[in-house]
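Hi Q.,

Before the meeting this afternoon, I wanted you to have the cytidine-5'-monophosphate prediction in hand. No need to reply - just skim if you have a minute. The sequence and ligand are here:
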Amino acid sequence: MRVVLGVSGGIAAYKAIEVCRRLVDAGHHVTPVLTDAAVHFVGETTFAALASAPVQRSLWEGTIPHTRLGKTADVVVVAPATADLLARYAAGMADDLLTATLLATRAPVVVCPAMHTEMWEHPAVQDNLARLVARGVVVVPPETGRLAGGDVGAGRMAEPAAIVAAVAAAGGPRDLEGRRVVVSAGGTRERIDPVRVITNRSSGKQGHAVAEAAAARGASVTLVTAAPLSVDAPAVEVVRVESAADMEAAMVAAAPGADVVVMAAAVADFRPKASAEVKVHGVPELVLEQTPDILAELVRRRDPGQVIVGFAAETDDPLERGAGKLERKGVDLLVVNDVSAPGVGFDHDTNAVTILSAGGGAVEVPLRTKREVAEALLDRVVGLLTTTHRDPPRTAPADQTGRTAT
Ligand code: C5P
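Predicted structure with the ligand bound:
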């Protein structure tokens, strides 16, 4: 997506640098637009080094820069949005490049207010915000925390991860609106005793990326995760699990009624037959047993029209093994990755996969961020939902006017 990152003059401008880096890392094309006040807090050079396009500051450089920026943007995000910036935007003023761009765009706009508590709670600020919300502007509300000068209170700008998630949600397709998606993630941990576990090298990052991407596309998402990762999408319901047995119970409970089930978790294939109640001393002799095949159970119980996706991490003949697994598991899509390849699979932020389809055909996704791989997978899922599977949701998509990203 083409993102215009507006930065106005508040101390939280230092966090806009991280927002810029994360947006670029997520594959977006970012043009920073700094107000004169912003450069009192952060340097143009810092943004220049991180962004995808030169920093823009003036209405008077280049040819009508505000309309060019406004027309080409997929999303305009202002982080931080000061009380002054919100007032000028709400009043329809256009006396600098950022406010002029905000008026010249038809793209979704996300504002991330940041200011002292007294200012944040002032009726003038709240009135301005209400006017913007009524016009469809998405607000990422500030948090309560440490403010400039050591004060503590409401008004601290939201964390960069939440802002990036709100940008993705505002600018991306809403093609999973009204759908329910259940995703599993992470490597399960099978207890040997209260201290030791058998697990695997899965980080859970790919499954979390699928959950976050589905939420950004409008789905209501349940993420059943064994990974100790935070979730950057507040709309995702997170169920934390440890073992394959926990995960099976949580998935079997969540899957009925879901439109899509994605088993991205690396379920431990075996576990100790019995786990000790107290810490084992010395070297135990472990008797292992197979864990339940959760995916097979979900396929057995599937609702009519439910799309089920499996993952396969392979180290040899990935495509051949994947094709066999696709058929054996009875899933609609199987995401195969060769985890022995550089930058692929476990613990990396990138992945390269082939998405095999039960209807025939394979889509290759070359080395990309895990979020981009998730988007490619969801494109396929949406294709299945709209062509061969369920009807689109009967309820009309939620009215987005005044939608507030929290
Ligand atoms: O481990 P394997 O390659 O067979 O995993 C393929 C798919 O099956 C994955 O989607 C994984 O989440 C799922 N699986 C499962 N229960 C297991 C093992 C694997 O649901 N016990």
